[in-house]
Design a protein that fits this description.
InterPro entries: DUF6880. The protein is mainly α and 475 residues long. Among the domains are: 23-143; 356-475, no CATH class. The chain is 70% helix and 0% strand. The chain has helices at 8-12, 16-27, 31-44, 47-63, 70-91, 96-108, 110-114, 123-132, 135-138, 146-157, 168-193, 204-212, 218-238, 241-246, 250-253, 256-268, 272-281, 291-304, 308-322, 325-333, 339-352, 357-366, 370-379, 389-399, 404-420, 427-440, 453-463, 468-471. The chain is extended.
Length: 475
Amino acid sequence: MSKKTLNPSNLEALGAERLAALLMEVSAGSADIKRRLRLELSHNLGATELARDVAKRLVSIRKSTSRISWRKRKALIKDLETQVAMIVEKIGPEDPSAAFDLLWHFLEIAPSVHERVDDSRGEVGDVFRAAIQQFADLAPRALLDPDALADRVWTVVQDNGYGEWDGIIPLMAPVLGSSGLARLKAHVEAYASSAEDDGAEDHAAIQFLRQLRGGTSYVADRKARFVKWCLQEIATVAGDTDAYIAQFSEAELERKGVAAEVAVLLVAQGKASDALQVLLNADQEGRTQEHDAWDEAYIECLMALGRDEDAQEHRWSCFGASLNQKHLRAYLRRLPDFDDVEAEEQAKQIVLAFHSFSAALDFFLKWPDLLSAAQLVDQRADEINGDHYALMAPAAESLRARHPLAAVLLWRAMITYALELGRASRYGHAVDHLQDCTALDGEIEDYGRFPTHADFLQGLRDRHAHKSSFWSKMY
């Protein structure tokens, strides 16, 4: 390796005096480098001295009120990451208690930082989200009183506007122990039973709107959600499933998603019958996006109750309704040898006849079964939605090698859609697709009931001769 390569070994060869001079030179115009060098010098004097300097820097960041422009955002992020590194890597091994307090202080400055910087990309938030995870290693080594820690946790979760304290209860649970969690729960319950400002001084219009909503206030709703979240977090880390479930109202339990969550917890406790009843009591219409969770929980309940045939029947039903591959694969795995082959063929017929062409095509592509995908395209070519570019384009690419006619039919649908609706932004793609059709023309011996490439191209010219912006891209 060259002796001019920048690596620790080559730099050490320069000697301490020359390296010191170089560091002074490169730090002359960089506040970041100067700050880092001072921190290293402080650490050389001991963890206590470094902790003092880090604390000063955190105070300085918190007190600053100047707006941070996008040009200075990277420097800020680097500064914040440096402070965390000093706390965790330098101070933590020597004085974990001091490091814990500094890391806590670091997270407390999050609101003041967020107020001064545009964090639409989430980079500043990522620093704080990464920092809080360091408590997992640091907290057990610090000398912490469980009750005092419970008080600190309760204070910060009440003011978590930027989410910087998300996950603090599970992270502190091992240190809080049963006594700390009990104290934290007492704080939550006291807050839940305390009187809340009902907004009596609100404008008359706001009071009127509140009456329309049934008299409940936003403040009361927010308080109830917060209390529920806290108690469920505590119940989760304490392993108290009953306490977790108890936080759901009867109305919430009627939602399929909530019912599914509760059912899974009950099955894990060996209460499959209770779990099944919770699922059956849920609103069977519910939200569409919650159906999958309910179905999976229902199947889990049936399996736990030894109702394997019923579980299989439900898997098949779910597949038929939504082409859910997970349910079909689970169904096939549980069939005797050779029966699965016949069932898979039946499943393919269901897919070929499914009401949504796009869903059926997507299924065959992911299964994967390109032969059936080509068959689907051939049989239901008039249902191809040329607007579904994100599905049709990759589907055509997958089919072009072994099933060129199917690929061409998909490209034609996208070309036709773009031209008939005058989607000029897609003309470039349409030209590419038409060129792909031309390239595959020689590989297709028989177009069957579909127009040949020459006929299709002539049809485009006849119907869309005035689309000059499209034809100009062809040459």
